[in-house]
Write a structure and sequence with these properties.
alpha+beta, cGMP, hydrolase, 6-stranded antiparallel beta sheet, EC 3.1.4.-
């Protein structure tokens, strides 16, 4: 075996100086490193001044860098003529001062909690030490330990050595200032037990309230307790010995205090090994002295652990901030990201975010403004409490200076506009019905009324929930709840973040409150920015639509209206306006305008509501001008829809069911129901993300038609409702909106079932408002698709127009979007038009006309015309199908005959022939040779 001498080690270290530096950084204590660094500094300075002949002059580069507390990478560059000592000094200077702490800190962040080796615990060596030497040796063992768990384990092992005890346990203080308790950190630690064997996790830790048991009494009284016979002391719990089989004789329990004198833990040792198992006064003194240093060590370790955790939380919050500000275009995605981060940050079972509606936000902003104005009227020396006593403060808690027991702002007054929930990894957007009666939402409302954080440790003991669990619709039970108001950049409350049930089963603590407070700041900014972004996008979309409309359309000129005014308006009989088989094909555009005015004249609406005749003429001309020249959804379609409504009212005997305001609004709605139609449907607008789709989330085109209608009415010389009293004006606009939106077939399908139930149950009068609204909605759909009820010749021509417009949209989807359109819009499927028309009648048209035929016998012609046209389309479909079948049969027959007359081939040749006749060689076919 080779013996390594001191000279060998010296030579190796000289040849490998970096090894020495690394070893010292990892193993030496701070004092040793400071001594080494100081020595290198002195040698380097001495050598530098000697070489430059300038005694007393310092190294500018080194001193300047050192004065800033750090060295840059550039300062570490070593010139060839520089001394080795200077290089070594700079190496230490780079990592000097805070380097050890930084290195440990980085290790903790990286999860490296490798336990540093303890002092050698050879009892023979320790016994040869004096008491002072032994004491200092054990103090050095814990002096640089920053892991709380490892530190506590070392403390108990060292105490066992000092006091010659068999084992020990250590409890740390937890809880708030008013509700402190002890938790077992390590239990039954012996000299040979490992940290893993002794550590108590949150799952198996023992909780001891202050004043309960031996440890609890020590924590409360801050005095040591030395029990020589524990079985004679009622504070000792004998159940532990019964479970473990261990016999406890004596216990010495001592408080651990910090530098401020506060109890931060309790340590206790059990059964002195020597003698009669009793701990002496000398043991108490040694225990107390050692725990004085232990208190400092535990405090430092806890502070270090808090620093590490705080750094991690800050990193998470910065990550959260980056993520939130990256996602600004979609509120739902943003909230989902927020909740995922919150759940990960605080390890809770469920997370919810509730957003306030605008009205409540306005109330809060209004109060805030009043408070600030009121506060500004008082000097700094004035009474601040008086400034806060705003009589209009709706959020002031009652019971303080008044006789009421409720806050002036009631929980029932709080309304959420949106609610999001994250549970079991799944994000859910709650419906108003779901969060309106939710108990979790009720707690969120309480938080808003209090305008401060609400931390409920046990919901079964809180307020109105005493003795009850709080089940939700999914069976989830809430126990502990943490709620925090969300503020925007103006410090206005815009919602609530709610966390329910920590994963470890413990209630949310003060540390969690600090985290969620910082978290809510970022949350509020993120949500506020997202809402601002959405508002900006909507404003830009609205501006884009407005500019497009204004650039394309214009109000009808006064001269155009005057020209119509002076011309004769033919009678209704001349135009056949009361007939279901009305046809506008031979009418000029001026005739359609005159016919429209005639319908309003015959309905007695112009005279009854004192509408200026010029205004009426100009409005009709303007409406006509605001239809684009698309293939089908143009002015002619709108005119025909209005004529059908006129016919249903007066020929179909529905007029008595409505008053004059409703008739006026319904006829105006028919003329305006497709204003500024672009020849494409709602699905196309959404697919291409048009400005209209950004502006309206549902019934995209229908909302645009209504808004365009209002724009025309509000333009100069076009307000046909100008003579209406205010109440009737508002009612007319409401009917107008309801009627136009009802032309969305998606809404028609939702309402048709209710209408069918009413009619089949014998409803014919429709006197109640909701029933009348349903009737008006169905009438709008019946008028909108009334082309299907026209005589066959008219219907066939109109169907070709509709199909042509659909095909135009399909062509755009193919060429510009690269998508395959649905069959009804695919030009390649034009031969299937008859079959698609039959499906259209069966699915949309026939059901509504059958119901109207039951409502009034006078409406039966609509249903008859629809059924007749269905039969025509059915016949065409059958004929086309038969023609297709014959063509297929002829092709199959010709192929079979060809195969019969062909010479017998080998199997591969027959297979080739079945694929295509063109591939047959001339020599193989006699007919081809002839």
């Amino acid at each position: 075996m080779t013996t390594i001498t001191e000279d060998d080690v010296d030579q190796y270290l000289r040849e490998h100086p970096q090894f020495l530096a690394t070893w010292l950084l990892e193993n030496a204590d701070d004092d040793t490193l400071r001594v080494v660094a100081r020595k290198f500094k002195q040698d380097a300075l001495s050598q530098f001044t000697h070489q430059n002949g300038q005694a007393g002059k310092s190294m500018p580069a080194v001193e300047e860098k050192e004065s800033t507390g750090s060295l840059s990478e550039d300062s570490m560059t070593i010139e060839p003529n520089e001394d080795r000592n200077l290089q070594t000094y700079r190496t230490f200077s780079k990592v000097g001062r805070n380097s050890i702490t930084s290195m440990i800190f980085r290790k903790y962040l990286d999860g490296d909690r490798t336990r540093r080796s303890s002092v050698k615990k050879d009892l023979d060596d320790l016994k040869r030490m004096s008491e002072e030497e032994l004491f200092m040796e054990l103090i050095r063992d814990i002096a640089s330990e920053l892991d709380v768990n490892v530190l506590c384990h070392k403390i108990l092992q060292n105490v066992s050595i000092l006091t010659n005890s068999d084992r020990g346990s250590l409890f740390l203080v937890r809880g708030s200032r008013d509700n402190k308790y002890l938790v077992s950190k390590l239990f039954d630690v012996t000299e040979s037990s490992t940290l893993e064997q002794s550590i108590h996790t949150e799952a198996n830790e023992i909780i001891v309230p202050f004043g309960v048991g031996i440890a609890g009494n020590v924590a409360l009284s801050r005095e040591p307790i030395n029990i020589k016979d524990v079985y004679a002391d009622p504070r000792f719990n004998q159940e532990v010995d019964k479970k473990t089989g261990y016999r406890t004789h004596s216990i010495l329990s001592m408080p651990i205090v910090n530098f401020e004198g506060e109890v931060i833990g309790v340590a206790q040792i059990i059964n002195k090994i020597s003698g009669n198992h009793e701990f002496s006064k000398q043991d108490e003194d040694l225990f107390r002295k050692y725990l004085t240093f232990c208190g400092i060590g535990i405090t430092n370790a806890q502070l270090f652990e808090m620093s590490v955790n705080e750094f991690k939380r800050n990193q998470l919050l910065l990550h959260l901030a980056r993520g939130m500000f990256e996602e600004q275009s979609n509120l739902e995605k943003l909230v989902q990201k927020i909740m995922l981060d919150a759940q990960d940050l605080l390890k809770c079972e469920r997370c919810s975010v509730y957003l306030l509606d605008d009205s409540f936000q306005r109330d809060i902003m209004s109060y805030t403004s009043r408070f600030l104005n009121r506060l500004s009227s008082y000097s700094r020396t004035g009474n601040l409490v008086v400034a806060m006593q705003d009589p209009s403060n709706q959020f002031r808690q009652a019971g303080k200076g008044d006789n009421t027991s409720e806050p002036l702002r009631k929980v029932e007054d709080v309304h959420f506009s949106q609610a999001f929930e994250l549970y079991a990894g799944k994000m859910k957007v709650l419906t108003p019905a779901e969060f309106q009666n939710s108990k979790a939402a009720f707690i969120a409302k309480i938080t808003l009324v209090a305008a401060e954080t609400l931390n409920i440790e046990d919901l079964t003991r809180y307020g109105g929930f005493v003795g009850h669990h709080v089940p939700e619709d999914n069976g989830f039970s809430a126990k502990s709840v943490l709620c925090m108001p969300i503020h925007n950049s103006d410090r206005t409350i815009i919602g609530v973040t709610q966390l329910i049930n920590k994963v470890n089963g413990q209630p949310f603590d003060e540390n969690d409150e600090h985290i969620i407070e910082a978290f809510s700041i970022f949350t509020g900014l993120g949500i506020h920015n997202c809402q601002m972004y959405e508002n900006a996008c909507q404003l830009m979309a609205k501006q884009s639509v407005a500019l497009e409309v204004l650039s394309y359309h214009a109000t009808a000129s006064k001269e155009e209206a005057e020209r119509i005014m002076v011309e004769r308006i033919p009678a209704s009989e001349d135009y056949k306006l009361y007939r279901y088989d009305f046809d506008d094909k031979l009418m000029s555009d001026d005739d359609t305008i005159k016919a429209t005015i005639r319908m309003f004249l015959d309905a007695n609406l112009i005279s009854q509501f004192k509408v200026p005749y010029e205004t009426m003429c100009r409005w009709v001309c303007t409406v006509k001008k605001n239809y684009r020249p698309v293939t089908y959804h143009n002015w002619r379609h709108a005119f025909n829809v209005c004529q059908t409504m006129f016919t249903m009212l007066y020929t179909g005997d529905l007029r008595p069911k409505f008053d004059a305001v409703e008739v006026f609004a319904l006829m105006a709605a028919c003329l305006c129901h497709d204003l500024d139609h672009r020849g494409t449907n709602n699905a196309f607008q959404v697919k291409v993300a048009s400005p209209l789709a950004m502006l309206y989330s549902t019934s995209v085109l229908e909302h645009h038609h209504f808004d365009h209608c209002i724009m025309i009415i509000n333009s100069e010389g076009n307000n046909i409702f100008q003579s209406f009293p205010p109440e009737e004006y508002r009612r007319a606009i409401k009917i107008l909106e309801h009627a136009i939106l009802s032309t969305d077939l998606a809404l028609y399908f939702k309402k048709r079932g209710d209408f069918k139930s009413l009619v089949e149950n014998g409803e014919r009068e429709f006197l109640e408002e909701n029933k009348k609204d349903l009737l008006k909605a169905m009438m709008m759909t019946a008028c909108d698709v009334a082309a299907i009820t026209k005589p066959w010749k008219i219907q066939k021509e109109i169907a070709q127009l509709v199909t042509a417009e659909f095909f135009e949209q399909g062509d755009i989807e193919k060429t510009q979007l690269g998508e395959k359109p649905i069959p009804m819009m695919d030009r390649e499927k034009k031969d299937e038009l008859p079959k698609m028309q039959v499906d259209f009648i069966d699915f949309i048209c026939a059901p509504v006309y059958e119901l109207f035929a039951k409502v009034s016998e006078s409406l039966k012609p609509l249903n008859d015309g629809c059924q007749e046209n269905r039969q025509h389309w059915k016949d065409m479909s059958n004929t086309m199908q038969l023609k297709t079948d014959v063509q297929k049969e002829d092709t199959h027959s010709a192929k079979s005959k060809f195969m019969e007359k062909s010479p017998k081939k080998t199997k591969p040749e027959v297979s080739l022939l079945n694929k295509t006749v063109k591939h047959t060689k001339p020599s193989q076919n006699p007919k081809t040779q002839r």
